[in-house]
Amino acid sequence: MKRAAAWSLLLLLLGGVAWLGWKKFGPPPAPVAPVDLARHDGETIDFSSGKPVVKNSAADRATTEQAVKEMEEAAKSVTFGPAKKQPEPAPVPSK
Fold it and tell me: What is the reported pTM?
């Protein structure tokens, strides 16, 4: 009886180790073809899922156009003055 309990405990332990190994080092995920992000003029690339998804619906285009208009309106009044001249650093005394 003790021998059967010992074998059952050993098999249960080995099963647990095998399950943990499978969870940690299981099969690799299927490779996904990369999305060429440089060739999507006018299309929306959504990264919210963690992967790039190219979208090109009428709603996406309208949202993009509205955002561009808002950015251009906000940037109209932005100006940059001449850069301030930095003071010369103090000379380092020689030893």
Answer: 0.41
